[in-house]
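Input set for joint prediction.
Command: fold jointly, output tokens.
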Amino acid sequence: MSGDSSIGIGIGLALKSYGRAFRGLLDKYTGAAAAYSLRKLSSSTSNVVRVRRSSDDAEQDFTAAQVDNGTLVNFANNDTSALYGNKMYFDGVDDYVSVAGMTKSVNYFGACTMSATVYVTDTTTNQVVFCLGGASYRLFINTDGNWYVNTSQNTGVAATLGAHTVSVEFDNSGNAISFTLDGVEEWTGSESGSFAETVFYIGARDVSGLGRFFKGLIYDFSITGSSVKNFAFNGYGNTNADWEDQVGSNNGTVNGSPALYSGQGFDGFVATEYDQSGAVLRDGTQSTTTNQPQIVSNGALVTDGNGNVSTIWDGVNDDLDVVTGFAGLTAANVYAVTDNAGVVTLDTLTAQDISADTNLTTILTSITYDKVTAVIIYPDNTNQSAIQSEINTLFGIA
Amino acid sequence: MNYLILSQPSVDYARSISSSLWALSRPEHVRDAKDVSQLYTSWLVHTDGRVALYLPDETKHVHSDGDVDSFCGLIGNPDVTITTTDEEGVESSQTLPMDEHLNTVRGGSINPLALIQSTAFTVNLKTRTELEADGWFPSEDI
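tokens >
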């Protein structure tokens, strides 16, 4: 009997593993002229969207599953999803970490090495990684895009976007004598410090007031080799507990209102929304970057008021062009799922003349919206009420 | 929103500048055959023939192998003035040809609008409000 039982379980598992074949809206109601959605609408659909990320303008295709499972977001944020929720985001406005109890001296620490891991998101503004007071024991990015040390020494090394390990070596007089980037010593020389104060800063400096705030991530900071004071912070969060000294009792204090890192500054835009109808290739594309609708904003997928993955259209010049147009189609039923101020609706544009329309904003011109979730076009009103009902269910529209 | 009124009233010229701005971040050897994006920004054409390029206030990546020469060549490689402020609040400026500046920021970022503002072309930058007043957005007859 045990043999029969195992066979039964085996068949059951096999059936379960196959499951039911996917049958989407476009399979149930065939004949669509075009269909754009970040959900899979047809069993034959593969990629639903091609996305350009703002960090380096690279593009990549994504399936509906990859839109939902974090693959798209990880692409848009330059593969930094692993840092989400466990690093402090320095906002470049008022976030920094302070360590009190130093002495106001440009050579206070004596000879030492200061190191950190940084994620650079901007090289156009003046941003301090660390310093004692204003310009001692300091590393910063200047407005010319180069790394500088102490008072004003240009290392001649361009700051580049992304994650880097940085390290500055100082001598007994507090002079910066070498700068190491990603494990390679890039500069040597001697640059004195100035404007020392009694507070050590990470992510800012103080010269008659705080400023030059860092924009990005700083963590794994350490001072080593000092005969006066060494300290080290993990910086794996945005509370004081995350900036407790790992080698002594020089704890850091978090200032400002830093958020945990969640992809701030990383955006993704729609280069192509693929036509899922499969009838005639009518992909919606946009080759001009400033006209591309946005699908990832500050590291998070754009969603409409019902929680569907959606796209932001700026109302100025954002659009998707249907390169092949709708030639041969003089009128159509257009089902548009859009969001206006958080209210998601399905508008059915009956018998709309789209013969001359080659872009989606023209097709949707009678609708007020700031986000577009789906546009599905049928050549006529066959099964109109059933299609409307299916779309309402699919996108959670009451 | 800011627009640069181009010295050459030509859509082809606008397209070339937009394309070369795009090439700063996407040199040919990193492009994929399926890449859709080709132009950085859009442009407007006035009824009198003038052409204005839209310049958003945002930072843009400059690839380590970005084609600096094409962009700078198209706009005549103007001098740019980079201003830094020391810790005593004293500003110091460095003026250098744009291609030299862009070569130093490879791998980093630029703000194309700020870049133009740092050149003599800043007098040709106009806001959308100014363009509206100048008839760049004629109202549609209803």
